[in-house]
Automatic annotation (TrEMBL):
Pfam family name, one: UDG
Family: Belongs to the uracil-DNA glycosylase (UDG) superfamily. SMUG1 family.
Gene name of the encoded protein: 413439
UniProt domain Uracil-DNA glycosylase-like: residue ranges: 94-274
A GO cellular component entry from the record: nucleus
Domain of life: Eukaryota
Protein name per the record: Single-strand selective monofunctional uracil DNA glycosylase
The keyword DNA damage appears for this protein: yes
Organism placement in taxonomy: Eukaryota, Metazoa, Ecdysozoa, Arthropoda, Hexapoda
GO biological processes: base-excision repair
Length: 292
């Protein structure tokens, strides 16, 4: 492709110093060399290292995704788990340090949500005022002029994130109530854009890039499901549901996969999303778990 543009998630010369970001790599026990990887994950989780294991998996995923060369029309790649990793670390350590029965799975960062805060569906006011997480955020390697990252100074609101977190704020009252049994995670932690800043979802990518992306993200998702010992995975939107189904079926785990409609205002017939999502949770038999 002689006329195609190539975009990497970061320059080869840019390396992540996760020690400076206080993300300690978890060294799985080597006392028994015959232990399987699954047993190692399970044993570490039982020792209370859940949040650190998740951060380790995500760090490795960022490195793998950073090797992908994206072609035109993808011009910009934002990796908030690099430039906003300090905020993401706060989110994981504060809210995912215990086993979770329910994993809500999103697709990838939105321009005014996780791309700004490092938190899945991380609409500014919800992260700052309800989750009580705030701090400095860096910049992507290559920034789109109309999609600048200003962190918690951003004056735009991501409607999807506002709708999702507001629903659980209304149902649960406190974030602690929600996170007693549930956790929200994004399948793919990078945002992709055209030259004009138009968003490109993973579902729209073709060719070898998506095969590599799926392979890396599938592996990370499976690891996280095992670490938190999830019993139910709820895809937020059809793409997340399909990736969860693929991962669960391939691993033959006895885990139920469900789907909530995506809270995006661009989705078809998506008015009254909160009411529709509440009805779905009730149909799943899960609503009472969140009502305070």
């Amino acid at each position: 492709m002689s006329n195609s543009r190539k975009t990497k998630t970061r320059r080869d010369s840019d390396s992540i110093d996760f020690k400076e970001l206080n993300c300690k790599r978890i060294k799985l026990s080597n006392e028994n060399n015959s232990e399987t990887e699954d047993n190692k994950i399970s044993n570490d989780a039982s020792l209370g290292n859940i949040s650190e294991q998740i951060l380790s998996v995500e760090r490795d995923l960022v490195i793998e995704l950073g090797k992908i060369v994206f072609h035109s029309p993808i011009e910009y790649v934002y990796s908030p788990l690099e430039y906003a990793f300090n905020i993401h670390t706060m989110y994981v350590q504060k809210y995912c340090n215990t086993i979770k029965k329910i994993l809500f799975l999103g697709m990838n960062p939105g321009p005014w949500g996780m791309s700004q805060t490092g938190v899945p569906f991380g609409e500014i006011s919800m992260v700052r005022d309800w989750l009580k997480i705030c701090g400095p955020v860096g910049k992507p390697v290559k920034e789109q002029p109309n999609r600048k990252v200003t962190g918690f100074q951003c004056n735009r609101s991501e409607i999807s994130g506002k709708r999702l977190w507001s629903l659980f704020q209304k149902l649960c009252g406190s974030p602690e109530k929600f996170f007693q049994q549930a956790y929200i995670h994004n399948y793919c932690p990078i945002a992709l854009m055209k030259k004009n800043g138009c968003n490109i979802t993973p579902a729209e990518i073709k060719g070898s890039e998506i095969q590599t992306l799926h392979s890396s993200c599938d592996k990370a998702l499976l690891d996280i499901i095992k670490i938190i010992k999830a019993e139910i995975v709820i895809g937020i939107g059809g793409y997340a549901e399909k990736r969860a189904q693929f991962v669960i079926q391939s691993s033959k785990l006895p885990i139920k996969v469900l789907c909530l409609p995506h809270p995006s205002p661009r989705a078809v017939n998506n008015k009254n999303w909160s009411e529709k999502a509440t009805k779905k949770l009730s149909e799943f038999g899960l609503l009472e778990r969140f009502i305070s």
